[in-house]
Specification:
Strand content: 15-25%
Shape: globular
Helix content: 25-40%
Number of strands: 8
Strand order of the largest sheet: 2-1-3-4
Number of helices: 7
């Protein structure tokens, strides 16, 4: 069997969490069959940038994407397995992959592509109002950090992912096996599909 060269891409949050641990566990398992390397960008490094530039970098982080392009040129990876691009890598990674002709596997750990806050939970209850790709309810509800401005920026940032197909809610009352990884038998979970 041919060993693929896989690049796992992850945007590290300000605090370590289960998603980051999953990236390394998945890499360890993949390593038994394939060659795996990591491209990790840090939210902490991004926060050191000018506050004026942050909204632009969240959408298209030029310095990080240039580094990723160089990494691809040197490593010649067969595919990228993206775990998270928010905020430090940015959705520009998808555009870059298309430009370079690199296939992507996007491993979903949350509902970010169909929800401004990524949880499908807000103000004390379940919510899937943005799952169609219309993020106006998430902005009006101040779902990201209790801020209209930050919610609007996040809505604009996740919109390209939603345009690819985004999260489609599973039929009411049925368990959906295709939701984000780690979500065992969640009612009303989601199916991510690319058109």
């Amino acid at each position: 069997m041919h060993r693929l060269n896989i690049l796992q891409i992850f945007s590290r949050y300000l605090q370590y969490g289960g998603e980051e641990g999953s990236v390394y566990r998945i890499g360890d398992e993949l390593q038994t069959l394939h060659n795996v390397e990591y491209f990790i960008a840090s939210s902490e490094e991004m926060m050191e940038a000018s506050r004026v530039l942050l909204p632009v970098l969240v959408y298209y982080n030029f310095p990080v994407l240039k580094r990723l392009e160089n990494y691809q040129r040197i490593g010649r990876f067969d595919l990228w397995q993206i775990h998270n691009v928010f905020p430090a890598v940015s959705p520009g990674a998808y555009t870059l992959a298309r430009k370079l002709g690199v296939p992507i596997i996007h491993y979903l750990h949350n509902y970010r592509m169909g929800c401004v806050n990524g949880f499908w939970f807000t103000q004390g209850g379940d919510c899937q109002k943005c799952s169609s790709g219309n993020f106006v309810p998430g902005v009006l509800g101040k779902c990201w950090r209790d801020s209209w401005i930050q919610s609007a920026i996040m809505a604009r940032t996740v919109r390209p992912g939603a345009a690819l197909g985004g999260h489609q809610p599973c039929p009411e009352g049925r368990a959906c096996p295709h939701g984000p990884a780690g979500g065992a038998d969640r009612r009303g979970a989601s199916l991510f599909r690319v058109r």
